[in-house]
Amino acid sequence: MFELIEPVVKSMGLELEDLELKRTGSKALLRVYIEKENGVNIDECAQASREISALLDVEDPLPAAYVLEVSSPGLDRALKELRHFKKYQGRLVRVVISEPIEKQTFFVGKLAKAGDTEIVIELPKGMEITVPYSLITNARLEVEYK
Question: Considering just the CA atoms, what is the radius of gyration of the chain in Å?
């Protein structure tokens, strides 16, 4: 689905950040998250919704009825893929893991490095923790107030 929608979004000068497909009763909910460097506005979301809807009407990739939502991923966006972690190096993140490291299962700190198999989080007081992607159950950007 990503490969189907991405060219439409790119043609509008936007980036396809993420997709979610969920069942909600008898219908499916397709959430499309778009962005650009300085953020997207409501008009861009509406235009992207029209373009994506037209594409999905023609291609018909979903076997059942669906509701389409197009929005920005928000300031506290989820980090799900390697490309997300690499893109947001240097930003404040909250990471939840499935097994304790240093007796903790979540960390908040600066995403110092995003490698191919693990990330490095710079914690307060200059400490660093290395977390393999395989242990990450949830990761988000934290809103930074300056």
Answer: 18
pTM: 0.77
Higher pLDDT, 61 or 113: 113
Of 39, 113, 36, 122, nearest in space to 82 by CA: 113
CA 6 – CA 67 distance, rounded (Å): 18
Instruction: Please list the residues that pair with 140 across neighbouring strands.
Output: 78, 94
Q: What's the rounded mean pLDDT across residues 13-27?
A: 88
Enumerate domains of the chain plus CATH numbers.
2-71 (3.30.300.70), 82-141 (2.30.30.180)
Residue 13 near residue 36, CB atoms below 8 Å:
yes
